């Protein structure tokens, strides 16, 4: 369905690759395809491998990708531009880039306000068994922190604005000299007036009470893919809390909780159920209806069925868009009647109209069987 390239093949890796391999291959490929590289540079490929690396280097995102592929990340971004911007990658991966681009990018001297990534948010999404099997579109309500619109995230009332800290002159640090028996020692400490920000706020913003961020309620459409598993996560990148000072937003994790089904249990794409049949059905064979998630189906059991027999209906389990499908398995338990119930049951069986209408052979068998039990009881 997805025409996006596989992240592993983009980085020349597979699912079992170690974190060191992921990092090493990314570094090599990023160097090769960096747009500044005149010989082999390609902005398109550079962006793609950056995107692949941002997923595969994060254990939670990698786990989601291994389970659902690109579907784990398509939330809301279908048709829209990629949620990964180059500037964020440069920010997050600056340690990697410095190693081959020289440290000039990180600059020196002037103290710029640190870009701060917003916090991640996790929401729990409860699904029932069939919703998880077939996939579902759901709406969720989400409270996220966004930068205050009144003060533009500064926390200062627009009338006074943000002022440069007079103690440190905006450096965020101050030198303090202390006298000791060794002489004067100069230490650099975080400025106590502005707590290192370099700024002070005279009048806090009334809207956010100086915090710089406010809560915003969003309603989001979540597309849960087919075959969603309990306790797995979907990730909506950059839908978490907004970052400060132009930093990227955090991610939204959607933790899926699948309610247990009264009859079905799931293992991978396979569905298991247990069904109890009577000893008479086991001895003589029978036909009955079985409910799978795809509808009902008649199955036939042959005469002489043994307890705990497993019947498998191929391709009647969970089906993925990729074409992969599991099976529906029925474990047949045979209920052995108590001795006191035995005789009435036999009598009922023999007088059962349906049975009498069945072929003579079966009726004769039942009669013989009844005689046998009668003898055992000493009658
Ligand atoms: Zn504000
Ligand atoms: Zn200061």
Give an overview in words.
The protein has helices at 7-10, 19-33, 43-56, 59-68, 86-92, 94-101, 129-134, 279-284, 339-351, 353-357, 360-376; strands at residues 121-127, 136-147, 162-164, 173-180, 183-190, 199-201, 213-224, 233-236, 252-258, 265-267, 270-278, 286-292, 295-301, 309-313, 328-335. It is of the alpha+beta class and 379 residues long. Among the domains are: 1-112, Helix Hairpins (Orthogonal Bundle), CATH 1.10.287; 265-376, Sandwich (HSP40/DNAj peptide-binding domain), CATH 2.60.260.20. A hairpin with a 2-residue loop joins β10 (265-267) and β11 (270-278). α2 packs antiparallel against α3. Bound molecules: zinc ion (2 copies).
In short:
With 379 residues, the chain is an alpha+beta fold.
Secondary structure topology:
Blueprint: H1 7-10, H2 19-33, H3 43-56, H4 59-68, H5 86-92, H6 94-101, E1 121-127, H7 129-134, E2 136-147, E3 162-164, E4 173-180, E5 183-190, E6 199-201, E7 213-224, E8 233-236, E9 252-258, E10 265-267, E11 270-278, H8 279-284, E12 286-292, E13 295-301, E14 309-313, E15 328-335, H9 339-351, H10 353-357, H11 360-376
Parallel strand pairs: 1-9, 11-15
Antiparallel strand pairs: 2-7, 3-6, 4-5, 8-9, 10-11, 12-13, 14-15
Helix pairs in contact: 2-3, 9-11
């Amino acid at each position: 369905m997805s025409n996006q390239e596989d992240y592993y093949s983009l980085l020349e890796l597979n699912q079992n690759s170690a974190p060191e391999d992921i990092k090493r291959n990314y570094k090599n490929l990023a160097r090769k395809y960096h747009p500044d590289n005149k010989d082999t540079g390609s902005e398109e490929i550079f962006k793609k491998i950056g995107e692949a690396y941002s997923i595969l280097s994060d254990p939670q995102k990698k786990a989601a990708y291994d389970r659902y592929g690109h579907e784990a990340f398509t939330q809301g971004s279908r048709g829209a531009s990629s949620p990964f911007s180059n500037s964020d990658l440069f920010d997050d991966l600056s340690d990697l880039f410095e190693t081959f681009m020289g440290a000039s990018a990180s600059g020196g001297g002037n103290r710029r306000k640190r870009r701060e990534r917003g916090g991640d948010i996790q929401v729990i999404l409860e699904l029932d068994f069939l919703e998880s099997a077939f996939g579902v579109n759901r709406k969720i309500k989400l409270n996220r922190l966004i930068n205050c619109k009144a003060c533009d995230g500064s926390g200062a009332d627009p009338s006074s604005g943000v002022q440069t800290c007079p103690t440190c002159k905006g450096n965020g640090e101050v030198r303090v000299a202390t006298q000791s028996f060794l002489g004067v020692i100069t230490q650099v400490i975080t400025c106590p007036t502005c707590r290192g920000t370099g700024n002070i706020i005279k009048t806090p913003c009334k809207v956010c009470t100086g915090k710089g961020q406010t809560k915003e309620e969003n309603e989001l459409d979540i597309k849960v893919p087919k075959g969603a598993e309990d306790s797995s996560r979907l990730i909506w990148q950059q839908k978490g809390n907004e970052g400060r000072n132009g930093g990227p937003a955090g991610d939204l994790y959607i933790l899926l909780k699948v309610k247990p089904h009264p009859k079905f249990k799931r293992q991978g794409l396979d569905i298991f159920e247990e069904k109890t049949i009577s000893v008479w059905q086991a001895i003589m064979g029978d036909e009955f209806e079985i409910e799978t998630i795809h509808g009902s189906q008649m199955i036939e059991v042959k005469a002489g069925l043994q307890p705990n027999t497993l019947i498998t209906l191929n391709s009647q389990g969970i089906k993925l868009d990729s074409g992969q499908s599991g099976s529906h398995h029925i474990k047949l338990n045979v209920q052995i009647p108590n001795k006191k119930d035995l005789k009435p049951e036999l009598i009922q069986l023999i007088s059962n109209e349906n049975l009498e209408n069945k072929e003579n052979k079966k009726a004769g068998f039942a009669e013989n069987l009844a005689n046998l039990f009668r003898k055992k009881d000493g009658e």
